[in-house]
Amino acid sequence: MSSLFRKKSINQLIQQSNQKTLKRSLSALDLTLLGVGAIIGTGIFVLTGVVAAESAGPALIISFILSGIACGLAAFCYAEFASSVPVSGSVYTYSYATLGEIFAFLIGWDLMLEYLLATSAVATGWSAYFQALLAGFGIHLPALLTSAPGSGTGGIVNLPAIIIIFLITALLSRGIKESSRVNNIMVFIKLAVIIIFIVTGVFYVKPENWTPFAPFGFEGIITGAATVFFAYLGFDAVATAAEEVKRPQRDVPIGIISSLAICTILYIAVSFILTGMVPYTQLNVADPVAFALQFVGQNSLAGIISVGAITGITTVLLVIMYAQVRVSFAMSRDGLLPKKLSNIHPTFKTPFQNTWMTGFIAAIIAGFIDLTTLANLVNIGTLAAFTAVSLAVIVLRKSHPHLKRAFKVPFVPILPAISALLCIYLMTSLPLITWIAFVIWIGIGLIIYFGYAKHHSNLGK
């Protein structure tokens, strides 16, 4: 039993990060834009309308604030770990050092599902926006090739979703610096588009649209908060980049906290204006931001918003797929997954095989599976990871009180405990089918751990 809870020492992790197998080329600004690239996308351009119409109404603003608070508390915990243990793998690595190997494996397994499904789901959203943009120019792709089987549209494959995933895979396999340059450009474009919406939309706000403010009651607000958690997935991805940052102890906490702060402010502002422009009952559409501008007669700006949405969703794809590869890379390097997943390309200095394998699986899922039912799995996976990192920072303070920390969570253990409890509370608001699927996935993970990982673990050897 003791072997299940064996831990990697902090010194081992630091030595591992100093081996420089990955190229250190990212700055604090790159990390901030990486986080914004992952956070601002599907949340603003898709989820805002659906959650307002079905769960929260105009109180969507409160849902985003609650999610932002939960994420902010978790972000502090991430920042302390990243400044102390600047190693790839994010909460998987942090759990390995504090909670033990079996917990680390299951959290890593959970993150892999979270990022993989998120990549496929976001690619499906990208496909929908891309088709809408082409339709604006009178170009209509055949339904047979633009939707997954079972989606009700008669499709056999979502080809645009497959193509965008392969393009992102090709970019990521070339190197993180090249990827971050593309990400930075696209982030500035989508931020400009969002600011255009805010500045334009404020003149069309009608206060009567905010009445009733919470038509679904407090329960609806909490359900909305649990649902929009998908929108905050990105800042976790910043922590996975620790081994490719020039000054990780300083820059990773800056990247995590600043990207989360920027995105929370933008989410609240967009929600406030969106529900003021359009009655919440009419917002259950795939493109609520563009729809709101069309609703008030700003059709030309709606087209610009669609371009910004495609750009925004592309950056989300880029970052969450990058994070998926870095988590499986770290697990492979520790012997918990096959070694080929941690092989580094001699020229590009990236996990080349891992990147293409991940891209291929994500493309198959996006192309052939309707992810409507599975979308909430991304939320429960994120909340489970945030709960683990909140508990792990309490353990780290007890087990390594003298560890050098460039950033420290205030009021330990109170704030991390509140963070964990808030995440667990939000998890209880997710549908039963989500919990069933999550338990099944964890069960599969346990089979793989006892059948393979436990016997191939480098720490065990």
**Largest sheet entry:** 2 strands, antiparallel
CATH architectural arrangement: Up-down Bundle
Order of helices and strands: HHHHHHEEHHHHHHHHHHH
What is the 3D form? globular
Please, could you describe this protein's structure?
The chain has 461 residues and is an all-alpha fold. It has a single domain, classed as Amino acid/polyamine transporter I (Up-down Bundle), CATH 1.20.1740.10. It contains 17 helices and two strands. The protein has helices spanning 10-17, 28-39, 42-56, 60-84, 91-98, 101-136, 159-174, 176-201, 217-227, 234-239, 248-277, 288-295, 299-333, 352-368, 375-399, 414-427, 432-456; strands at residues 146-147, 157-158. It has a two-stranded antiparallel ribbon with strand order 1-2. The longest helix has 36 residues, at 101-136. The protein starts with 9 loop residues before the first helix and ends in a 5-residue tail after the last helix. 56% of the residues are buried.
Short précis:
Pfam families: AA_permease_2. The chain has helices at residues 10-17, 28-39, 42-56, 60-84, 91-98, 101-136, 159-174, 176-201, 217-227, 234-239, 248-277, 288-295, 299-333, 352-368, 375-399, 414-427, 432-456; strands spanning 146-147, 157-158.
